[in-house]
Amino acid sequence: MKHEIITLADVQIIGMAKEIAFCKGQEECPKFWGEYVERIIKPVFIEHKTPDAFQQAAIDNGVGEFGLCTCDIPNHNCMACAEQNFGACNSKTFTYVIGGIYKGGSVPEGMRLFPIYSGKWLKVHFEGGIKAFQQQYQKFYKEWLPQHPEYRCPNNAMTMEWYNGADIESPDYQCGVMIPIE
User: Fold this and answer.
1) CA torsion angle 113 119 122 123 (round to 10)
2) pLDDT surpassing 60 at residue 8
3) Which of the pair, 139 or 101, is modelled with greater confidence?
4) What pLDDT score does 124 carry?
5) Whole-angstrom Cα distance, residue 128 to residue 29?
6) DSSP category for residue 146
7) Are 96 and 22 in contact (CB under 8 A)?
8) Residues 53-77: pLDDT tens digits?
9) What share of the chain is helix, strand, coil (3-state, %, to 5)?
10) pLDDT at 131
11) Other Cβ atoms closer than 10 A to 132
12) Residue 45 has pLDDT above 90, yes or no
């Protein structure tokens, strides 16, 4: 898998958040993206309606660039938790955020700010577009990451999916995952 090390410092993510049970993640996260499309993309970019405050904040901050996965368990490694619980029959929850990098301005009702880990991040590029995302996501966590112990995720850190481009059906659509590293 193509990967690179990037540095993020003093970054906050602004976005829509939803509590999702681990056992429902693979079905509920895509449904949540459907809500995002209905709330922001369809009215503004397809129907060409004037954006309301919520939609404008989303546009101004690139909401939709990231899918942030986090939980509130202290001294906890969310990445290990996801590996153990995602897709398993487990009712524990994580917070999934459809967000973008906060550039300032108001935070409308229905959105929240999430500070993220300052430091080095491993950014992994998936190939084959969004259709290959789930398959490569699983392969990354189950195969690639265990083969690369030099990339350790610190406790209390969030992981992020990243998305770039407009045509999610294209095999050239760019996406992947980012994890903070110690």
Assistant:
1) 50
2) yes
3) 101
4) 94
5) 20
6) G
7) no
8) 999 999 999 999 999 988 655 544 5
9) 30, 30, 35
10) 81
11) 15
12) yes
Strand partners, 4: 123
Q: Which of 138, 137, 111 has its CA nearest to residue 52?
A: 111
- Side chain identity at residue 36, one-letter code: Y
Residue 59 pLDDT: 97
Specify the 3-state DSSP secondary structure of 164. Answer: strand
Query: Contacts for 144-153 with beta carbons within 8 Å, 24 or more apart?
Result: 144/1, 151/122, 151/179, 151/181, 152/181, 152/182, 153/77, 153/78, 153/79, 153/80, 153/179, 153/180, 153/181, 153/182
CB atoms < 10 A from the CB of 40, how many? 22
Distance CA 41, CA 128 (A): 23
Contact partners, residue 72, CB within 8 Å, separation at least 6: 95
- Round to whole Å and give the CA distance between 160 and 42: 24
The residue with greater pLDDT, 169 or 160, is 160
Closest CA to 13 of 88, 154, 115: 115
CB 96 within 8 A of CB 69: yes
Rg of the chain over all Cα atoms, to the nearest angstrom? 16
Q: What's phi and psi for 13, nearest 5 deg?
A: -105, 135
pTM summary value: 0.87
Question: How many angstroms separate the CA atoms of 135 and 5, rounded?
Answer: 22
